[in-house]
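Colleagues,

Please find the record for the four-part complex below.
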Amino acid sequence: MNTNRLETFADGVFAIAATLLILNVDAQVSEDIPYLGRRLLDIWPSYVAYAVTFFTIGIVWVNHHTVMSQIDRTDRMFLFLNIGFLMLVAFAPFPTRLIAEHIRGEGARAATLTYGITLVLMALLFNALWLYASVGAQLLRADHDPKVVRGITRSYALGPVTYLAATLISIVKPIVGVILFAAIAGFYILESSVFGRTKQRE
Amino acid sequence: MNTNRLETFADGVFAIAATLLILNVDAQVSEDIPYLGRRLLDIWPSYVAYAVTFFTIGIVWVNHHTVMSQIDRTDRMFLFLNIGFLMLVAFAPFPTRLIAEHIRGEGARAATLTYGITLVLMALLFNALWLYASVGAQLLRADHDPKVVRGITRSYALGPVTYLAATLISIVKPIVGVILFAAIAGFYILESSVFGRTKQRE
Amino acid sequence: MNTNRLETFADGVFAIAATLLILNVDAQVSEDIPYLGRRLLDIWPSYVAYAVTFFTIGIVWVNHHTVMSQIDRTDRMFLFLNIGFLMLVAFAPFPTRLIAEHIRGEGARAATLTYGITLVLMALLFNALWLYASVGAQLLRADHDPKVVRGITRSYALGPVTYLAATLISIVKPIVGVILFAAIAGFYILESSVFGRTKQRE
Amino acid sequence: MNTNRLETFADGVFAIAATLLILNVDAQVSEDIPYLGRRLLDIWPSYVAYAVTFFTIGIVWVNHHTVMSQIDRTDRMFLFLNIGFLMLVAFAPFPTRLIAEHIRGEGARAATLTYGITLVLMALLFNALWLYASVGAQLLRADHDPKVVRGITRSYALGPVTYLAATLISIVKPIVGVILFAAIAGFYILESSVFGRTKQRE
């Protein structure tokens, strides 16, 4: 089985999950709001949450692309690992809304914890599908570069650890956890696109 | 007419139907919930329903791919059978929400029955489109392997029967029916990806 | 400019518009419904409306595919005609819900009229994009068959007329109009897939 | 990294953002409306807003296609600029609804301002991704025509300026701003498809 349809399906889930995020912002402004301008300023956490999760999904999409560019066949196990991974990507809009609505209230801890668990599981399943494909070069292209493959493995292994740390911190101090979730995305983008120009293989 | 655009359209419906499932979870938590953490634990059936239907749609997507890999042309009848089949796939988020919300209440029977009927019809239409394509090798690739084709036919024929059995049981005992719906998905994944490695053609 | 990305975008809109239809059904059943089973039976017009519009979008998708198979280039005007056409396809879920909810009440006339106008405009724009592409063979493949092209032109010209007739009837007798909308879709499917096997070029 | 998957992901976001616009119209008509016909006429701004934003997204999609047709490779920075740009495209349904609901009330200024800022940022990011790709011919096809590239650069540079002007006007006179947003889309379509036939390269 070739990889085309998996990419189409995955890109569909990525695109829909990212685009559905706007419904979270939308739900914050009911029609009969009297002071619209004030309300639009007041819901600024929704915009931040929208942007952070949109970029986080974007980063995951870029990384998924990197994985797919190294392999040239799939099997059932690999497909189901992908479905599990995409299930967590599609889940992301829900905890994003929880954070946007509750970060300034008593539900902050529960909201950030839900967000963190989703990201940790997503990162774990992403590592699982990559390791399944790459250990023993099981699904890799015949002409893959072992050095590049090792680089990817090392780089992805950081994901679950980083997100777990941010999640644990968010239990103690939710707002710090949220800032870390945003910082992880921001750092990744800067690292891979600005500083990392010379070694764009991870 | 070639099969590319059918695959794009079908993959779109699969991806959207799966991703829309999160709206069901989302609707369970209104903004003004006082004890967010407790509520998030309380709605655990929503998470289970989300996962089971996401994987069920994923399985159906994998099987649809298997069908498409055996054929290399389509006709109007085949397209309309596919549309009918996709109509049932796109319907799945609705009974999923019914189960998530009503499995612990008086509506459990009605909810599981609706879910079961949807799956039985989906499996029937999937068999219909496969039989239409494969009987007389009408739409099959010239180089198809008759043994593989017979294997697919046998394997898919189990779908409606299995789901009908689970549906009938869910009339008597809804919770058992739900466990069976989950078990069917779980068993299929294990069977085809773990145990079935050596015969990955069904 | 080639036609690939137009097909991807169009198939996306078709798939999303069709899949969003389930939200109409979903909105009919609120969580705190006391007699779920009775409610699920009571909303049967929602299921019928869902199926009719899903198949209508499916038919339009098949026909759009037929158009695209005859042409091999696009220009700006053709793209914008397509966007206008897709705008009406994406509009369809709204009047579908109106019919499902109001066909048994005082709003039946307004609902069916809105549905009819949407379909008439959709059929008109579909003819516009086809005529723009085919008159003078402007965007057609070099190897197109003039006889096939004329057959398509004749067959599509019936669309706006048929839907206009059903719309006018729905002003006088809404329920008859709705039955006609369903019958048009059903007849088209039967005609092109069952009876029309021998002349599958329209 | 080639450009295929970026196009698939981008087309997904374009298609979903455009198709989700109908939910804005849908939310304006609750089920228990007594005079459905009157209500359907009364919400005409929703139809206008739907059409204007649908076509605006369509125009942006066409222009994104033009960009992609000039380049044949991507890098991380280009991908993240695209994700930022798509984040703003996916945001558009929200201010569209604000305008539809508030243009006749006190919230008109806040609504049009939000819409305008979204479009200005979208146009800025679109210029950013184009300049990133084209300055120094960094990501351009080897056989690109420098004259065409300069034409695109000039034409896109007008976007942010035009939208900024309309946004500033909408602060003083919201309704005029909205008319300008619609006029910009309309003029662009006429210019590029009717008048601009002879120079269809911008």
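The first helix of chain D runs from residue 4 to 26.

Comments are welcome before we finalize the supplementary table.
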